[in-house]
């Protein structure tokens, strides 16, 4: 547990030190590296919209790739009272608003079942060589990923390289891939 908290502190600080130029450059490199993954034959993709204040990977580049390949794209709407996320189909007319938690989310839209999602791009603070990840600690993504199909593919996106080992808990759901600006990890 202490391990995860220390990693959260470390990676939040590392992220805050990044310039806007670095974030854009590395986000584009991550998108280009993601193109090499064996995931592009699917139909339903979940993507997260970045929390700007937390300097998350800018997924706009991946979103353009998905739209260019005519994929169905789904984004989340978090419910902090239940700790769960609804999956909403992203359409041309989907209105996005920033929640009181700073998360860009669809205001309304067509809900899509987690079981229909084939590829999920996952935000994270840190990850290790076995595919374990550290998020913000609320468990939203672990609950969401555990509700997906058994053959769904989970792809982490990170500006930084893998940690040696992260202590995992039984509720943690490991990634299948993690894409960084420099390389792609497969677990």
Automatic annotation (TrEMBL):
One Pfam family linked to the record: 5-FTHF_cyc-lig
EC number(s) stated in the UniProt entry for this protein: 6.3.3.2
Catalyses which reaction(s): (6S)-5-formyl-5,6,7,8-tetrahydrofolate + ATP = (6R)-5,10-methenyltetrahydrofolate + ADP + phosphate
Main enzyme class: ligase
Co-factor(s): Mg(2+)
MF (Gene Ontology): 5-formyltetrahydrofolate cyclo-ligase activity
Keyword Glycosyltransferase: no
Residues spanning the signal sequence: none
UniProt keyword annotation of Nucleotide-binding present: yes
Keywords: ATP-binding, Ligase, Magnesium, Metal-binding, Nucleotide-binding
PANTHER family: ATPASE INHIBITOR/5-FORMYLTETRAHYDROFOLATE CYCLO-LIGASE, CHROMOSOME UNDETERMINED SCAFFOLD_24, WHOLE GENOME SHOTGUN SEQUENCE
Protein family according to the UniProt entry: Belongs to the 5-formyltetrahydrofolate cyclo-ligase family.
Protein name stated in the entry: 5-formyltetrahydrofolate cyclo-ligase
Source species: Aequorivita echinoideorum
């Amino acid at each position: 547990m202490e391990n995860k908290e220390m990693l959260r502190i470390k990676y939040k600080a590392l992220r805050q030190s990044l310039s806007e130029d670095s974030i854009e450059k590395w986000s584009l490199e991550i998108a280009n590296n993601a193109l090499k993954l064996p995931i592009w034959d699917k139909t339903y993709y979940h993507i997260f919209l970045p929390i700007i204040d937390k300097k998350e990977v800018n997924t706009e580049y991946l979103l353009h790739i998905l739209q260019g390949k005519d994929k169905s794209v789904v984004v989340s709407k978090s419910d902090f009272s239940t700790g769960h996320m609804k999956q909403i189909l992203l359409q041309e007319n989907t209105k996005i608003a920033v929640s009181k938690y700073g998360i860009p989310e669809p205001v309304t839209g067509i809900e899509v079942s987690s079981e229909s999602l084939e590829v999920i791009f996952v935000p994270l603070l840190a990850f290790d060589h076995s595919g374990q990840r550290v998020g913000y600690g609320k468990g939203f993504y672990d609950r969401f990923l555990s509700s997906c199909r058994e053959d769904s593919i989970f792809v982490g996106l990170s500006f930084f390289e893998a940690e040696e080992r992260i202590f995992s808990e039984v509720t943690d759901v490991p990634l299948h891939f993690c894409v960084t600006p420099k390389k792609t990890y497969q677990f």
